Amino acid sequence: MAVSQETLDQIALSRAEYDLILELLDREPTEVELGLFGALWSEHCGYKHSRPLLKGFPTTGEAVRVAAGEENAGVVEIGDGLSVVFKVESHNHPSAVEPYQGAATGVGGIVRDILAMGARPIAMLNSLRFGTLDDPRNRFLFEGVVAGISGYGNCIGVPDVGGEIVFDASYTGNPLVNAMCVGLLREGEMMTAAARIPGNTLMLVGATTGRDGIHGASGLASRTFEEEREMRPTVQVGDPFMEKVLIEACLEAARSGHLEGMQDLGAAGLTSSVMESVAKGGMGLDMDVAKVPRRETGMTPYEVMLSESQERMLLIVTRGHEDQIRQMFEKWDLQAVDIGTVVEGGIARVYDGDTLTAQASVETLTEAPQYRLNGERPAYLNGLHNQPLPSTPPVEQAGAILLQVLAAPNIASKRSVYRQYDHEVQTNTVVKPGQADAAVMRLRGSNKGIAMSLDGDGRKAYLEPYIGGALAVAEACRNVACTGAKPLAITDCLNFGNPEKPDVYYQLEECIKGMAAACIALGVPVISGNVSLYNESQGQAIYPTPVVGALGVLEDVQRYATAGFQNEGDVVLLLGADVLDASPAALAGSEYLGYVHGVVAGRPDIDLQAESRLQEALVSLIRQGLLNSAHDCSGGGLGVTIAESCILGNVGFQGEAALSARWDAALFGEDPSRAVVSLTPERAADVERIAGELGVPFVRLGAVGGTRFTLPGLIDLPLADLADAHGNGLERAAGA
Predict the structure, then answer these.
(1) pTM value?
(2) Active site includes 91?
(3) Does residue 519 fall inside a structural domain?
């Protein structure tokens, strides 16, 4: 008897997909089998609409040890016998339903992805997006997500060192919560998730299993929101203290020599964990759900297989070593239970005691159908590209507008948020949140350091998806380069609406193409990532929002740059431009245009070769010790960049360069591939020579000094006013 449409909707399978399952099995699926297919063929696990597009990413490179899609996270070698593991994941839909637990379990999940590689998690970053703060529901989501990140993250001993927060009406009802984790591996420590040896034991360790999170992957993360649906049962509940103990126990097990592999239990719980592990190894499995420890009574095999209860890991234990693993986990007061065996033949058999509840080919279960659709360029683009921009305000308003932009929630200091995060635990954080464009951490036992940034710009991707994708990669890497670290690789989280809509599919495809082009131009492969689709509320899609996490290496962790001006009398240069004559096109998608004028319009652009040259220059100049500060010129434009460098350094700026007649475009335009740097006058000749040799134009802006921000004939403001607007803008907007 065919299943009902209501059942298919619950597990996010189409009628055509159900018919395909019938054809593959040559019979009706059991209840458990249908649950397995629903989870593994979900958008969240199966990447049905995105995998064909993701093949366009460059994924290989000299430093790449594990490429995208091969394991739980990507790995790059950085020398000195060290490798870095990193990945970004989304927890958007759970956070929209229960912001605290959604964000908290997002942190826990990405940490376990890194842990599954055998790496110790050493850093967290977050990219957060909410609707505007004038809406009480948006404020509730914002406060709940931040509380969830701090409440969970501060307990597990992993520093939260960077990220971004954006507010825009596009995200009302569907916030974005993207979490990135970085881990460290020493030579010989890497684990795999693949089960390749028949007879090895599948062990479930950590927390007991409950009903929380059932249908999280298929129901919550693979469809759009509908007002009448009650989603709370699909949101997981986290226990950070259990996670901390699990981290230490799993790292000990990984180093013990008793394991073949290790896998996180995240989306779809046991289903994805066991099936993906044996699929990677070309094996099958026999498992018994009756052996799974439970914290709720009366759970069915279906519920056990699909539960997304947190703080659980799957260990693939070498046959004969089970007792040693059990004793190891008992020492940490954790359960370690045999639940199955790796077998030859590629068939997965799931029992409940003596009752066979599911039997299917692992390949059939894990190879979700792939859809290559035809996107359509959104009709709105031409109108937005050609929309007349507001006229230039009177010069007398320049100072007031600068203060207004500095106080905008997207520009203002996020100190009230990151002060809630522990960013110094493990005592390796060299450059802390708010000090530079990227966080910097030392690596014990090495002179090297790493720099990390997590960035995106949905507004510009909305205006031109291809360029928006390229800009996301460029800015994340530029932020890393502004510390002096050479960008090595990226991870990405692609947040989009319903891909079955031709305009959304176009956005997804074009963003990926733009990102790929930027990766190739900048020499940074994609080593891991996540796709989050169906981000819509009340039928309205979010802005297409590609978020990029970049990681770079400092050969000498003691030689880096921060964003704040350092010394009175230092020369201030703008690298990447030779004049300050900006056209109105520079205002495309700018914060100034959106926040001051309420307009989202224009067509952003980027020269990727110029971007590559700028980043090379920044890394070279900082490594040679020639720059005292470096700050990426992006959100808010040149005026905001200089002001932030003043605020961070607690010193003024005396401008010399004259701006064009379209002063608002010169001051607030967000043309990429630019950075404001400061240096001692004695080094100016060397800096200008090296910039010239690398093909990077520059212009002298003025000098560091005094207690005011001045631009000839345009702005003359006390530093205290800049600091007040920037430092308190977010709290004022939130009504705090």
Answers:
(1) 0.95
(2) yes
(3) no
